Amino acid sequence: MNDNMATGTYSWDRQGWRWIWILGIIAAGCAQPQPLPATSPSPTTPLALAQQQLASGDFAGAAAAFSQLAETSPEPAATTLRNQASLIRLDLGEALASAPTTGQPALLSAGMQALAAQQAGPSLAALLPIQTATLDPYERGLYLRTLGRAQLLNGEAQPAAINLTLAERYPLPAKRRTELTYAIWSALTQSGLGALTGQLKPEAPQAAGWLALLDLVGRTSGNPVEFASQLGVWQSTYPHHPAQLLLIDELLEKAEEGQSPVRRIALVLPFEGPLGKVAVAIRDGFIAARFAQTNSDSKPDIVVYPASVATTSAVIKQAVSEGADFIVGPLEKPAVEALLAQTELRVPVLALNTTEHATDPSRAFFQFGLQPEDEARDVAGHAWQQGARRAIAMVPNSDLGSRLLGAFRTQWAAQGGAMVEAVRYTHDVSSYKEAVRRTFGLAESEARAQALAGVVRREIAFEAVRRNDVDAVLLVAAPRDARQLLPQFRYYGADGVPIYATPLVYSGVMNQRADTDLNGVFFGDSSWSLNVGDLSLRNTFLQQWEVDPAYLRFYGFGVDAWHLIAHLRTLRGQAIQTLEGASGTLSVDTGGVVHRSLKWARFINGKPRLLEP
Fold it and tell me: What pLDDT does 222 receive?
């Protein structure tokens, strides 16, 4: 294709489809008149005035009115009015001197505060006992919004979609409208059209429009011109739909971005220092994936730029000035954080590490990392799905152990589970034995027996009894440590408790004789490690390149980074859409963070055996 043809196509891709959309709106006559305000009789009492303020959207005024009424009302009416004011202020995001402490308002308040702390389990535990029949319309809407978002956080997308769309019947503060719209869209896309057809309630006022938009996006996925041309019809059919003000522009922008081809990629990695070998593996995997791609017309150029944390910013500016229209890297977390802060950077970025900060959905900044914390959260999630509710965490006494213990605790609490014990071990034989004894309360049992012997002043027959209030062990252990720990579990009669381990437990190399000691352990790992998916490149690395198996995961990481580039914008915020990669099943949240779902296996006769999904 010559330059003029390329320019012409680019101009049409960027502007032509938008004109199709605009002309479609005009042709359909889809002016969007605002609905007329509802009229109602003038209130005759202060209470009626406060209730009218609440119904009309003056939430701050309603909260003040309810508080004032509480000062002059007898009990129990005064408490009811104060609770109403507190819930409204909490909904407005205000700090409360004291939250409701009794009755259903206390439960609703507790559910809201737990959700604000991203604790889905405690939020649901507070909300589910509430009897909705006694709630007024505002409280019912607040309940449905909170319940739906907690369910969404807990991975229950379908009931979340039902409750969130029902919440649109009721009054809510303007600042919560955006939150509700995005929560509904997330629940819808995670559930999928097939799972929701016939499930949304008839009384949900915008349900038909939501399902029609979901269907439109699904039918035209990958064809932004078609999406734009059909959007005008949807807008004329649902002129007052809340998605008109919030989602449509974003969906159009995604379509526009999806039309911009990547022509030159800057791969920015630290080839010097402690991450040098990792960087080489990532580079080789990335470039190998590029040459393995059969469609030669869509292959961008790759330019490799060595960079340290200190030089990353300058190197990326140089790469952009030299024509790079996509950045892959950096690898070190401080460099990613520094790059994330550069708001003037206009080219898309796929950083090869993650930070604690998500990005604005409108910004093309993505984060993808092989984070042990993500793996620990995946382990906790898998154990929960298998029915575990009371767990013990066993981790090495190291910085890594502390980080993963924190990830276990956070995820387990968010799911509503109880972390009964956290045990640390060191790399020596006596520590392994003591860790297992502590894990199952055997040390306490022995101590009680010794104390009893001291009281009666004679030896007593005694057999230590392990605790039976645990249904899972969440384990972080390298193969050498795990092979020492697991025999101790069996020695103390604890081998009946399921053990769920991070990928660290498997070396990635089959060693049946040594790994017999790991029999029964469940563990998550990358697709390549468990012989899942397209293994052609993996076999090339192992057989022809003779790479060190210890770095195979990083070769796969580079391969996945290459394949993600073409799918990042399509995947973003669409939890039901995933990409099967060498590192696992990949998805992208609305903040641009790539998440990995591990494949799961169990050691049987010293070999990992893949489990059914």
Answer: 53
Give buried/exposed letters for 369-389 (b at 16+ CB in 10 A, else e).
bbbbbbbbbbbbbbbbeeebe
Long-range contact pairs involving 402-406 (C-beta distance under 8 Å, separation at least 24): 403/372, 403/373, 404/372, 404/373, 404/376, 404/476, 404/502, 405/476, 406/373
Domains observed in the chain: 46-258 (no CATH), 264-370 (3.40.50.2300), 373-535+557-610 (3.40.50.2300)
Task: List 600's β-bridge partners, or say none.
Answer: 524
- Residue 136, both tokens: 């007024």
Identify whether the C-beta of residue 99 lies closer than 8 Å to the C-beta of residue 106: yes
| Stronger pLDDT, 194 or 580, i.e. the higher one | 580
Neighbours of 432 (CB within 10 A): 22
Alpha helices by DSSP H, 322-415: 333-340, 372-385, 399-415
Local structure of residue 540 (DSSP, 8 states):
I
Query: b/e for 83-95, b at 16 or more Cβ within 10 A?
Result: bbbbbbbbbeeee
| Predicted confidence (pLDDT) at residue 611 exceeds the cutoff of 70 | yes
Which tens digits make up the pLDDT trace of 42-52? Answer: 556 888 887 88
Residue 326: pLDDT above 90? Answer: yes
Query: Which candidate, 371, 320, 321, places its Cα nearest to that of 348?
Result: 320
Q: Specify the pTM.
A: 0.61
Residue that the structure tokens 């898998």 belong to: 382
Q: How far apart are CA 392 and CA 435, in angstroms?
A: 11
> Between these two residues, 79 and 37, which has the higher pLDDT value?
79
Spatial distance between the Cα atoms of 505 and 320, rounded to a whole number of angstroms: 41
Q: pLDDT tens digits for 422-473?
A: 999 998 878 888 888 777 654 444 444 344 344 444 443 434 444 578 899 9
Diameter of the chain measured on Cα atoms: 99
CA of residue 293 relative to chain centroid, distance? 30
Per-residue confidence at 331, pLDDT binned at 50, 70, 90? very high
Rounded-to-integer distance, Cα 564 and Cα 584, Å: 12
Q: Which amino acid is at 62?
A: A
Q: What is the CA radius of gyration of the chain?
A: 29
Closest C-alpha to 585, from 515, 543, 524: 524
Report the half-sphere exposure of 378 (CA within 13 A, side-chain side).
23
Amino acid symbol at 203: E
